[in-house]
Specification:
The protein is 18% helix and 27% strand. The chain is α+β, with helices and mostly antiparallel strands and 67 residues long. It has a single domain, classed as Rhinovirus 14, subunit 4, CATH 4.10.80. A hairpin with a 4-residue loop joins strand 1 and strand 2. The chain is elongated and about 60 Å long.
Amino acid sequence: MKDKIHPKYNEDAKVTCLCGNSFVTGSVRPQIRIEVCSKCHPFYTGEQRIVDSMGRVERFKQKYKMK
């Protein structure tokens, strides 16, 4: 392996979710922000909701005029 080409690995990288949950993991980035975690993801919580971060569901409904 070549010297001085690899990024620094942080053992205590803080991951923060939009729901407020945070935890520590290892990463090359010191701080990570995510939209959905295991505390708020519909698969793990058992809720029937659509996770849409880009507005794709609304565009689909508007395209086919669904309510």
